[in-house]
Every structure is written in C-alpha cells, then in structure tokens.
C-alpha cells in the first residue's frame, strides 16, 4: 500500500534544525492507522560530529554559568512545557500510540524532573570543614563532566529523555540526545522549547538515527558520560562499549515485574490496579506488571475470573479517542514480536484464557492493535515467564505461600520493580525488606519514584552504579573535587617528609 509522507524529521544541532545528509531515512508510523506519517533522517558521522563539536564548544561557558542562572533557564523551560503540554502529549500519541491520558501522565512525570533540578543551586552545595589541621581547611565541590550523551527508548519519548538531559544540563554539562527513531517528534520539540527558554546554542542537541549513530556517540573521544534506557542486551553492549572508551555509564535495562497477591488482599482493588499496570500503554513500559503471583489456588481462580470479566470490557481504541484505555502497539513489527510470544506460550503449555491476537478496531483494521492477553498456569521454566515481552500479555503464576512467592521474585534475573497486595503490615514490611528488587510498591502496582528520589532496578536490570534523576542523577552527572587549603600564618615549621596527619 502506497502512503504519502507528510513530514521529514531532521536533527537539532547548535540551536537550529538540520535536515541531515539525506543518505538514510527511517519511516515514522501512525500506530492507530498503520500508515506512514513521516520519515526521520538517520544521522551519520557528519551529523554526530557536528552535534558533539557543538556541545564541546558550548561546555566551557555553560559550566561557568552560575547554577542560579542555569536554574532560571530551567524555570522558563518548565513554564513552556506546562504551556505546551497538550501539543507534546498529542505528538506522543500520534507516533507512539498510547492513549492521550497516559501520554499526559508520562509528560507530567518528565516535567517533575525539570522542576526538581530547578533547585540545582541547593543540589550542588558542597561541604566545608574548618581547621581539619592547624590553620588548614578542607572542602568539597561537585563539578560537571563535559559532553554527555543520552540514548532513550520508544516507549516514553518525553519522560525518559527528561530523566537525562535536564539533570545533566542543570549540573553544567552539555548534552547530545539520541531518542528512538520510532517516535522522534516530541524530543525534537523539547529541544526547541528549551532553546526558546534561553538555553544557549550547543548546550542541548538532538541527533536521530539508529545503531550507527549510537556507536559513533558512545565511542566519541569528546564524550564523557552516557545514559541509556532500553533492553538489557543493548544496555550491556552500550555499557561495555562506552566504558571501554573511558566513559562513565548509567544503563537501565529490561524488566519482568511481579505483583504478589496475598489471600488477605482487597481483590477488587488489586484487579483494578493490575489491569492498568499490565495493559496501560499496551504493556510497553519497563515498569509494567507482566507477572501476577497468586498465593493459593483460591486467589488464583478468583483473579482469573475477575481479569477475564474486565478484559471483555477493556476499551482498546486509537489513542486520540478520549474513552480509550489501551491503544495500539508502536509498530507492526513489534506487534508481530509480541504475538509470537503469545504463540510460544500456547506451545509451552500455559493456559491462554484471554486471547487478543485477532483483535481489530473497526475503521482501523491496518492499525497495530493487539487485544489484552492473559495466561494462567504459567511456570518459571517457560520463556513467556523468563523473558521481557513488552506488550499487553499478563502471566499468572500460582504459588502455595508467601515464602514461595518471595523466592520466585528473587530468583528472576531482572529486578526492576515489584509490588505486593496485602492488608497485613507484617507481610508488607517483610516483603519490602527481603525482596531483591530496586523499586517496591505496597498496594501500588507501578512504584515509579517521584523526581527527588531515584529510579533504577537491581541485577540485570541495570548496568553501572547510578540510578537516574534524584540525588543519584546529580551525582552521576558531576564529579567530586576536594580541596585542602592552608594560608600563611607567619609561622614556618620547616620541611616535613612524612605523610600529613592533620594533627
């Protein structure tokens, strides 16, 4: 089927839009209709070099800009984000497919990070100790790294980039963002708005592209640090490659998030929460609940019955529909990948009690839709349990008791987020203390921390030592310098050849 390309998306470098060299392009789709809505220029060596050089040239002046003045630019940026929130949310829905309400929510979480780093003058405060030795003072400061790079996934084209570049820039770094080529329009618009807020040219640059652009960025000699969010397989590659070139790296990877439902839980509340956590954004979230761990067969049977009833009434429609609860997947290729996992689960012997593989939306038959899928009787040896599916597929695993549930969660290689549903405080406290996962919810299905805390998982869900945003994000994008000083007092003690002890 021939489609008409309506727009071409280039790059944002040194404060202006670049069309790119025009040698390679990728299609951008409207997931609701399946039509090509535009094309995006793929950066090569020329565009990457121009972006990194612009960032490197802008770094000395921006690093020397007082944090209070940087904060004023961030305040103006936040005001513009609030003013353009509907426009940005519409861009997210048009290219990602998620429903508008979810797009608005994800944008809000990104704006909260900008709001957090508006306090950068306080966040960068160092420490001072007077008279650590006779007439000797010692103090520490945090200083920016230089040119930083961000590589973000398709599922949050506003929120995840705003986990990265506002924090880095507030700390005095300059930045090159490489967003997903599947939905590039929103990150480009963010850069334009930041420029409108008064950000100097070259401080924030956006290059669009694929693996070629990523490889050039993470190995570039002028790049000091790399932030990544995506799959663990790619994250491990980025971490290995970038660190071998001397970069500091934070890389957030895959997830397989469990929700443990105890016999004493409020099942109505749990099902309401888990429907949104499993099928919101069509399951394309690194914090989506993809496994329900039912403690006891009675709980499991009751959950399956309730889920099936709720799935029948789930409103799967184009994301622009104000009544939509779930939209399409991001591309046809990704939909086929997720359907392949559903096929695999059937072959592995799981019981498919809700099958969304044949789902279509009237009038949008070519859209990238997949209905909600639910598996019962899933076992830990199945690939649909072990691997991240990243779609509207929920697996239910039955266990006999709390200890078995805890052991199941702790045995998984991914440890991004988890939740427990219970009315019992002892159970909740023990779960939070003993579970080996980075982010925990108690009767909260998607425990994404607020901006002044930090986001990150454990085990294979993270590479590198730093979580994103919060104080961990500030620490990642800065390096500590400690100064020890003594001013002449008119007393000369002569040369001293032993290790100073400050006594």
List the topology elements:
Layout (H helix, E strand, L loop, with lengths): L7 E2 L1 E3 L2 E3 L6 E6 L4 E7 L3 H20 L2 H17 L1 H12 L3 H18 L2 H4 L3 E7 L2 E9 L2 E5 L7 H12 L3 E5 L6 H12 L7 E3 L4 H8 L4 E7 L2 H13 L3 E5 L4 E5 L5 H13 L9 E7 L1 H16 L19 H17 L2 E4 L18 E4 L6 H4 L6 E7 L2 H10 L2 E2 L1 E5 L3 H10 L4 E4 L15 E2 L2 E2 L6 H7 L1 E9 L17
Parallel strand pairs: 1-5, 8-9, 8-11, 9-10, 11-12, 13-14, 13-19, 14-17, 16-17, 19-20
Antiparallel strand pairs: 2-3, 4-5, 6-7, 7-23, 12-22, 15-16, 18-21
Helix pairs in contact: 2-4, 2-7, 3-4, 3-7, 4-6, 10-11
Please provide a written account of the structure.
It is a single chain. With 503 residues, this protein is of the alpha/beta class. The chain folds into two domains: 268 residues, Aldehyde Dehydrogenase, Chain A, domain 1 (3-Layer(aba) Sandwich); 186 residues, Aldehyde Dehydrogenase, Chain A, domain 2. It has 16 helices and 23 strands. It has a seven-stranded mixed beta sheet, sandwiched between helices. The protein has a six-stranded mixed beta sheet with strand order 10-9-8-11-12-22, sandwiched between helices. Strands 1-5-4 form a three-stranded mixed beta sheet, with helices on one face. Helix 3 packs across helix 4 and helix 4 packs parallel to helix 6. The radius of gyration is 25 Å and the shape is globular. The model has no long low-confidence stretch (mean pLDDT 95).
Compact overview of the structure:
The protein has 503 residues and is of the alpha/beta class.
């Amino acid at each position: 089927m021939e489609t008409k390309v309506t727009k071409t998306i280039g790059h944002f470098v040194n404060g202006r839009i670049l069309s790119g060299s025009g040698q390679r392009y990728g299609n951008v789709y409207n997931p609701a209709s399946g039509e090509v809505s535009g094309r995006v220029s793929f950066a090569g060596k020329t565009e990457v070099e121009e972006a990194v050089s612009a960032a490197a040239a802008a770094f000395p002046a921006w690093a020397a800009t007082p944090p209070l003045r940087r904060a004023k630019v961030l305040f103006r940026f936040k005001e513009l984000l609030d003013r353009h929130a509907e426009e940005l949310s519409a861009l997210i829905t048009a290219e990602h497919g998620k429903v508008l309400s979810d797009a608005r929510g994800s944008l809000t979480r990104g704006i909260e990070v900008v709001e957090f780093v508006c306090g950068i003058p306080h966040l960068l405060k160092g420490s001072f100790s007077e008279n650590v030795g006779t007439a000797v003072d010692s103090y520490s400061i945090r200083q920016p790294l230089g040119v930083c790079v961000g590589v973000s996934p398709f599922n949050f084209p506003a929120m995840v980039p705003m986990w990265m570049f506002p924090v880095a820039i507030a700390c005095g770094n300059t930045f090159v963002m490489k967003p997903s080529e599947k939905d590039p329009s929103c990150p480009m618009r963010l850069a334009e708005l930041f420029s409108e807020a008064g950000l100097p040219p070259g401080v924030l640059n956006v290059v669009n592209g694929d693996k070629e652009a990523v490889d050039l960025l993470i190995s570039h000699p002028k790049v000091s640090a790399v932030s990544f969010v995506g799959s663990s397989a790619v994250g491990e590659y980025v971490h290995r490659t970038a660190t071998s070139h001397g970069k500091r790296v934070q890389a957030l990877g895959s997830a397989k998030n469990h929700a443990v439902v105890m016999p004493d839980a409020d099942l109505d509340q749990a099902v309401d929460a888990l429907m949104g956590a499993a099928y919101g954004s069509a399951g394309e979230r690194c914090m989506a609940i993809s496994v329900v761990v039912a403690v006891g067969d009675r709980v499991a049977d009751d959950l399956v019955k309730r889920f099936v009833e709720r799935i029948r009434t789930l409103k799967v429609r184009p994301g622009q529909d104000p009544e939509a609860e779930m939209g399409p997947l991001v591309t046809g290729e990704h939909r086929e990948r997720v359907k392949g996992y559903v096929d695999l689960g059937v072959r592995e012997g799981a019981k498919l009690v809700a099958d969304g593989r044949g789902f279509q939306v009237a009038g949008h038959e070519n859209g990238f839709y997949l209905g909600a899928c639910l598996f019962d009787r899933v076992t830990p040896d199945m690939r649909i349990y072990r691997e991240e599916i990243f779609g509207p597929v929920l697996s239910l695993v039955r266990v006999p008791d709390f200890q078995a549930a805890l052991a199941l969660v702790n045995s998984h290689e991914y440890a991004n987020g988890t939740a427990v549903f219970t009315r019992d405080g002892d159970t909740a406290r023990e779960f939070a203390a003993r579970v080996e996962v980075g982010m925990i919810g108690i009767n909260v299905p998607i425990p994404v921390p607020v901006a002044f805390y930090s986001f990150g998982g454990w085990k294979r869900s993270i590479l590198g030592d730093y979580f994103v945003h919060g104080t961990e994000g500030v620490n990642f994008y800065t390096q500590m310098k400690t100064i020890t000083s003594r001013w002449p007092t008119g007393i000369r003690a002569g040369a001293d050849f032993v290790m100073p002890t400050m006594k």
